[in-house]
Amino acid sequence: MRGATVKSLILGGAFALSMTAAPVLAQAIRKPDLSVSSNDGRFTGYSAALPLDLSSDAENTTFVAKVAGSIEQPTYDFNLNMTAKADQGPSPRALALGASLNKREAGFRSSLSRLFGFGDLPKSNYVSVSVDMNATRSMILPTSVPIARANVRSALTLDGRQIASIGLGGGTMGDEGVDFSLIRPFDIPAEFSVSVRAEDERVQDGRFMVKLVKTNW
Fold it and tell me: Which residues form the signal peptide (predicted)?
Protein backbone atom coordinates (compact mmCIF):
# COMPACT_ATOMS: atom_id res chain seq x y z
CA MET A 1 0.00 0.00 0.00
CA ARG A 2 2.78 2.38 0.92
CA GLY A 3 4.64 1.58 -2.30
CA ALA A 4 1.54 2.35 -4.35
CA THR A 5 1.11 5.67 -2.56
CA VAL A 6 4.70 6.68 -3.17
CA LYS A 7 4.41 5.69 -6.82
CA SER A 8 1.26 7.77 -7.19
CA LEU A 9 2.97 10.77 -5.63
CA ILE A 10 5.95 10.42 -7.98
CA LEU A 11 3.73 10.12 -11.04
CA GLY A 12 1.63 13.05 -9.90
CA GLY A 13 4.70 15.21 -9.31
CA ALA A 14 6.18 14.29 -12.67
CA PHE A 15 2.91 15.13 -14.42
CA ALA A 16 2.67 18.50 -12.65
CA LEU A 17 6.29 19.29 -13.51
CA SER A 18 5.77 18.40 -17.17
CA MET A 19 2.65 20.57 -17.33
CA THR A 20 4.61 23.48 -15.83
CA ALA A 21 7.68 23.05 -18.03
CA ALA A 22 5.79 22.36 -21.26
CA PRO A 23 4.91 26.02 -22.04
CA VAL A 24 8.49 27.11 -21.29
CA LEU A 25 9.93 24.36 -23.49
CA ALA A 26 7.48 25.10 -26.30
CA GLN A 27 8.47 28.76 -26.22
CA ALA A 28 12.17 27.84 -26.31
CA ILE A 29 11.94 25.53 -29.33
CA ARG A 30 13.04 27.12 -32.58
CA LYS A 31 12.49 25.98 -36.17
CA PRO A 32 14.08 22.52 -36.60
CA ASP A 33 16.47 21.81 -39.45
CA LEU A 34 16.01 18.61 -41.46
CA SER A 35 17.80 17.48 -44.61
CA VAL A 36 18.05 14.21 -46.52
CA SER A 37 20.72 13.22 -49.04
CA SER A 38 20.60 10.64 -51.83
CA ASN A 39 22.75 9.32 -54.63
CA ASP A 40 21.28 7.90 -57.85
CA GLY A 41 17.89 7.78 -56.20
CA ARG A 42 19.15 5.88 -53.15
CA PHE A 43 19.01 7.19 -49.61
CA THR A 44 22.52 7.88 -48.31
CA GLY A 45 22.06 9.91 -45.14
CA TYR A 46 20.15 12.50 -43.18
CA SER A 47 20.65 15.37 -40.77
CA ALA A 48 18.18 16.62 -38.18
CA ALA A 49 18.79 19.42 -35.67
CA LEU A 50 16.57 20.85 -32.96
CA PRO A 51 17.68 24.27 -31.62
CA LEU A 52 16.50 25.67 -28.29
CA ASP A 53 16.73 29.30 -27.23
CA LEU A 54 17.25 29.41 -23.45
CA SER A 55 18.33 33.05 -23.22
CA SER A 56 17.73 35.18 -20.16
CA ASP A 57 18.02 38.89 -19.42
CA ALA A 58 21.73 38.52 -18.69
CA GLU A 59 22.85 35.84 -21.16
CA ASN A 60 22.24 34.57 -24.67
CA THR A 61 21.98 30.79 -24.39
CA THR A 62 21.34 28.30 -27.17
CA PHE A 63 21.27 24.52 -27.14
CA VAL A 64 21.28 22.42 -30.30
CA ALA A 65 20.71 18.66 -30.44
CA LYS A 66 21.64 17.09 -33.76
CA VAL A 67 21.72 13.64 -35.28
CA ALA A 68 23.29 12.96 -38.68
CA GLY A 69 24.63 10.13 -40.77
CA SER A 70 22.92 6.95 -41.84
CA ILE A 71 20.25 4.93 -40.10
CA GLU A 72 22.79 2.20 -39.32
CA GLN A 73 25.52 4.56 -38.11
CA PRO A 74 24.13 7.81 -36.72
CA THR A 75 26.23 10.46 -35.00
CA TYR A 76 24.67 12.34 -32.09
CA ASP A 77 25.91 15.84 -31.40
CA PHE A 78 25.05 18.34 -28.66
CA ASN A 79 26.13 21.98 -28.39
CA LEU A 80 25.53 24.50 -25.62
CA ASN A 81 26.59 28.13 -26.11
CA MET A 82 26.34 30.79 -23.41
CA THR A 83 27.33 34.42 -24.01
CA ALA A 84 26.94 37.26 -21.55
CA LYS A 85 25.07 40.24 -22.94
CA ALA A 86 26.93 43.53 -23.24
CA ASP A 87 25.48 47.01 -23.75
CA GLN A 88 28.53 48.01 -25.77
CA GLY A 89 31.57 46.22 -27.12
CA PRO A 90 32.29 42.48 -27.13
CA SER A 91 30.82 40.04 -24.63
CA PRO A 92 32.80 39.93 -21.37
CA ARG A 93 32.55 36.13 -21.12
CA ALA A 94 31.45 33.18 -23.19
CA LEU A 95 31.21 29.43 -22.68
CA ALA A 96 30.68 26.67 -25.23
CA LEU A 97 30.30 22.96 -24.50
CA GLY A 98 29.86 20.17 -26.99
CA ALA A 99 29.74 16.39 -27.16
CA SER A 100 29.42 13.83 -29.93
CA LEU A 101 28.87 10.08 -29.97
CA ASN A 102 28.75 7.35 -32.58
CA LYS A 103 29.77 3.71 -32.88
CA ARG A 104 33.40 4.59 -33.56
CA GLU A 105 34.25 7.29 -31.02
CA ALA A 106 33.00 9.69 -28.38
CA GLY A 107 34.17 13.27 -28.16
CA PHE A 108 33.95 16.23 -25.83
CA ARG A 109 34.93 19.85 -26.45
CA SER A 110 34.81 23.06 -24.47
CA SER A 111 35.71 26.70 -24.99
CA LEU A 112 35.89 29.45 -22.39
CA SER A 113 36.76 33.11 -22.94
CA ARG A 114 36.95 36.13 -20.64
CA LEU A 115 37.72 39.80 -21.10
CA PHE A 116 39.56 41.89 -18.51
CA GLY A 117 39.15 45.61 -19.10
CA PHE A 118 41.48 48.29 -17.78
CA GLY A 119 41.97 52.05 -17.89
CA ASP A 120 39.30 54.70 -18.29
CA LEU A 121 37.66 52.79 -21.20
CA PRO A 122 37.61 49.11 -20.16
CA LYS A 123 35.26 48.24 -23.05
CA SER A 124 37.84 49.43 -25.58
CA ASN A 125 41.02 48.49 -23.72
CA TYR A 126 41.15 44.92 -22.49
CA VAL A 127 43.02 41.65 -22.37
CA SER A 128 41.18 38.59 -23.61
CA VAL A 129 41.95 35.04 -22.48
CA SER A 130 40.50 31.95 -24.11
CA VAL A 131 40.94 28.26 -23.33
CA ASP A 132 39.91 25.56 -25.81
CA MET A 133 39.96 21.86 -24.97
CA ASN A 134 38.85 18.75 -26.80
CA ALA A 135 39.13 15.03 -26.21
CA THR A 136 38.13 11.91 -28.13
CA ARG A 137 38.01 8.26 -27.16
CA SER A 138 37.60 5.20 -29.31
CA MET A 139 34.41 3.19 -28.79
CA ILE A 140 35.87 0.26 -30.71
CA LEU A 141 38.82 -0.03 -28.30
CA PRO A 142 37.44 1.01 -24.87
CA THR A 143 40.81 0.41 -23.19
CA SER A 144 42.62 2.86 -25.48
CA VAL A 145 43.99 6.12 -24.08
CA PRO A 146 41.84 9.18 -24.89
CA ILE A 147 43.36 11.74 -27.24
CA ALA A 148 43.15 15.23 -25.75
CA ARG A 149 44.46 18.67 -26.64
CA ALA A 150 44.28 22.12 -25.08
CA ASN A 151 45.03 25.60 -26.39
CA VAL A 152 45.38 28.84 -24.45
CA ARG A 153 45.36 32.19 -26.20
CA SER A 154 45.60 35.75 -24.93
CA ALA A 155 45.25 38.99 -26.90
CA LEU A 156 45.73 42.67 -26.13
CA THR A 157 43.25 45.21 -27.49
CA LEU A 158 43.83 48.95 -27.24
CA ASP A 159 41.27 51.56 -28.32
CA GLY A 160 39.13 48.83 -29.83
CA ARG A 161 41.94 47.44 -32.00
CA GLN A 162 43.77 44.19 -31.38
CA ILE A 163 47.50 44.84 -31.09
CA ALA A 164 49.11 41.52 -30.20
CA SER A 165 48.28 37.94 -29.31
CA ILE A 166 50.09 34.88 -27.98
CA GLY A 167 48.99 31.26 -27.96
CA LEU A 168 50.17 28.01 -26.40
CA GLY A 169 48.99 24.51 -27.21
CA GLY A 170 49.72 20.86 -26.55
CA GLY A 171 48.14 17.48 -26.05
CA THR A 172 48.57 13.80 -25.31
CA MET A 173 49.98 13.18 -28.82
CA GLY A 174 52.64 15.85 -28.46
CA ASP A 175 52.67 18.62 -31.06
CA GLU A 176 53.34 21.38 -28.56
CA GLY A 177 53.40 24.82 -30.05
CA VAL A 178 53.60 28.52 -29.40
CA ASP A 179 52.79 31.43 -31.67
CA PHE A 180 53.01 35.19 -31.33
CA SER A 181 51.37 37.82 -33.53
CA LEU A 182 51.96 41.56 -33.71
CA ILE A 183 49.11 43.21 -35.60
CA ARG A 184 49.56 46.55 -37.36
CA PRO A 185 52.27 47.97 -35.07
CA PHE A 186 52.85 51.72 -35.36
CA ASP A 187 49.99 51.91 -37.89
CA ILE A 188 51.88 49.69 -40.35
CA PRO A 189 49.28 47.83 -42.46
CA ALA A 190 50.76 44.40 -41.82
CA GLU A 191 50.55 41.50 -39.38
CA PHE A 192 53.75 39.85 -38.16
CA SER A 193 53.50 36.27 -36.85
CA VAL A 194 56.04 33.88 -35.37
CA SER A 195 55.11 30.25 -34.73
CA VAL A 196 57.10 27.28 -33.44
CA ARG A 197 55.91 23.66 -33.34
CA ALA A 198 57.70 20.90 -31.47
CA GLU A 199 57.30 17.15 -31.06
CA ASP A 200 59.19 14.94 -28.63
CA GLU A 201 60.98 18.05 -27.37
CA ARG A 202 62.37 18.73 -30.86
CA VAL A 203 61.45 21.68 -33.02
CA GLN A 204 59.65 20.36 -36.10
CA ASP A 205 58.44 23.58 -37.67
CA GLY A 206 59.36 27.23 -37.21
CA ARG A 207 57.83 30.01 -39.26
CA PHE A 208 57.91 33.77 -39.57
CA MET A 209 55.10 35.28 -41.59
CA VAL A 210 54.15 38.77 -42.72
CA LYS A 211 50.63 39.41 -43.93
CA LEU A 212 49.59 42.70 -45.50
CA VAL A 213 46.32 44.06 -44.11
CA LYS A 214 44.16 46.49 -46.03
CA THR A 215 42.92 49.15 -43.66
CA ASN A 216 40.90 52.33 -43.89
CA TRP A 217 42.18 54.89 -41.39
Answer: 1-26
